[in-house]
Amino acid sequence: MAYVAPEPKIFACRQSEALAADIAKAFGAEMGNVSFSTYSDGEFQPSFEESIRGARIFIIGSTHPGSEHLMEMLLMLDAAKRASARHITAVMPYFGWARQDRKDKPRVPIAAKMVAKMLETAGATRIITMDLHADQIQGFFEKPVDHLFASTIFLPYLRSLGLDNLTIASPDMGGSKRAYAYSKYLNSDVVVCYKQRKQANVIEYMELIGDVNGKNVILVDDMVDTAGTLTKAADLMIERGAISVRAIATHALLSGNAYERIEKSALKELIITDSIPLQQKSEKIKVLSSSKLFADVMHRVHHNTSISSKFLM
Asked: Which of 32, 126, 241, 266 has its CA 20 to 30 A from that of 103?
């Protein structure tokens, strides 16, 4: 009798339980049973409460700050490896620590490389993630990496807005490639913001390269942290004659005074995915679900079929 592979099982890290439930529903599977015990000092231990021997499992968890989210993913991977799971896929909608992808000054770590090695050592046999901060991070892994693009989520929404005189904008020089990719699909112009930082999260100077007068502008970025860059860029564009400014950002870290900055800024709307759960609601923030994208890719991975249609950029 031919061997029939068992159906995959889906488990969630605690920081991504809501998204994992949506992914499991879109996938057509029940969530796997995992429990956590916590010591009084904060140390925690995950435990799979069902057999996963010989199974393909997907562990869903973003690794946004704090560091316990990464630790939780690592412990889940190690537990799955020691429980003899056959294939262990770390589904990381947001791959944290990715901003440290190179040595930009002496005596600093390359955290993204270190995290990649930790995930592989812990037991991950495959990684599925979305909109890495830098494409080359895929090369830090020795295991397969499926790098999905949130453009497959954002583009239909942007088209539904029916905006005339559309211009795509990059909030910095490093994001110009992403902006040009969106402009190709939306048949629009592109402008770029040039900025100089005094230190991390602090902008000293910003200038606009291009014309936004009479335009509806869409700022494109992979993440929004303190929202300083996006809000400053939006205010600058309105000053230069833009009709409206919206922003799309895949990962909404939204730390510090980010929510207050967004509310007070000229941004008409900030469009994000649910890769990281929001800490508070805002009428200016529109959340688009990534659950169907991840569920579809997970289904294709399990059945060994192509996922190239999910790469628009």
From this structure: 126
Phi and psi (nearest 5°) for 234? Answer: -60, -45
Strands 189-199 and 202-209 come out as antiparallel
Q: Choosing from 105, 117, 195, 232, which is the catalytic residue?
A: 195
SS3 state at 150: coil
CB 80 within 8 A of CB 59: yes
Domain regions of the chain by residue span: 9-149+291-310, 151-288
Is 215 annotated in the active site?
no
Its pTM stands at 0.92
Is 151-288 in the same CATH topology as 9-149+291-310? yes
Extract the tokens encoding 45. 């231990």
- Secondary structure (3-state) at 41: coil
Give one word for 150, left, alpha or beta, with left for phi > 0 and alpha for psi -120 to 50.
alpha
Burial of 268 (0-12, 13-18, 19+ CB in 10 A): middle
Per-residue pLDDT of the chain (313 residues; tens, 9 = 90+): 555 667 899 999 999 999 999 999 999 999 999 999 999 999 999 999 999 999 999 999 999 988 999 999 999 999 999 999 999 999 999 999 999 999 988 999 999 999 999 999 999 999 999 999 988 999 999 999 999 999 999 999 999 999 999 999 998 887 888 999 999 999 999 999 887 766 665 656 678 889 999 999 999 999 999 999 899 999 999 999 999 999 999 999 999 999 999 999 999 999 999 999 999 999 999 999 999 999 999 999 999 998 887 765 5
Which CATH number does 151-288 carry? 3.40.50.2020
